[in-house]
Amino acid sequence: MVIRFRPRKWITLAHCASPSQWTLLNVTTGAHTNIDFPDLDAHHYLGTADGLLVLGHKRTNIIHLLHPFIGKTTEFPSHYAPSTLNRSLRVNLSAINGAGTDDSTILSTLVISLRNGLRQFICAKPSDKLWAFVQAINQHSASIVDKVRGHSPLTFGGRCYFTTSDSMIIALDLTPGVEPHMVCLLDKDPWLVNHQETIIYSYLVRSHDRMLMLRYLFGMNLLREGGFNEEDIFMCQDCPSLVEVLEVDLPRRRLVTQHGIGSRCAAFVGASHTVMVSTEKFPRIISNAVYLNYFMQGLFRHFGAYCFEDKTAISARNFQDRRIGKNSPCACHWELEDYLMCDVEKGYHM
């Protein structure tokens, strides 16, 4: 798990022909290579953490991190210990929403966010016997942070960060001898205080040496309450909508508005993880655009992509006739943009 050897600019593409065959693709240079890991037949692929594959053994539920180039695996526990029980419970692999690594500890810590109503974080080092629940330690955290699911885990500068739907940014305090607990680095955006009825989806994206927040807002009161440039608001399903890009300034704990994500790249956003792709190497993908995941496009019938250059929204894709589960998407038959729109939002049915 050495930091400088992690393939964080590479993504893993699965094939339907064989669960053990994968394609590794560099989203910056376009380089790719095919690999075969026979051991993958016995594992569920749960996502990535800073370029490393997160795998769960189908029989034992033991979680592994796999370096896709050198084949080295790191083993993590199969059980966790809720603070309210005196016994350990098996990790439910289907509840894993996303993962990241935190290198503030001597041995790097794997941090996992859970879904299906659990809205919790668990973490462990390779030497630990059990996963630990990440605790909220003050009234503010207990009433807000502990009840909100973390989105788009992102490893940046050796730390693991999450954002919530209402744009809070959370890190973890993993000080030895103290129970792991959440730290709110950036509270709710003051601009959103008057927009209680606005629905918000926030995602963290790594862009070279910067951390960006991509934020999608929609609701009738976007126009009524003000505070936003009306020229940036567009209509989607007869509802005012807005897509924003903000740079996360961690030292000053603030968000700085940007005018797009760049003329040579595009972002794919989901609750499991996010991907920034070079549009020079993949010209079929629209430049300076953000692509919503299949869940947002299908269930909520939102747009498929938003282009900052001309401020236009592109119609949603139809994923209803495709399998969204542990055997899909498939790089054999899918275009890269369709694959990524599904991969960033896991929909496992184990």
TrEMBL record:
Name the chain's protein: KIB1-4 beta-propeller domain-containing protein
Q: Which InterPro entries match?
A: KIB1-4_b-propeller
**Pfam families the record matches:** Beta-prop_KIB1-4
Q: Which residues form the KIB1-4 beta-propeller domain?
A: 27-293
Top-level taxon in the UniProt lineage = Eukaryota
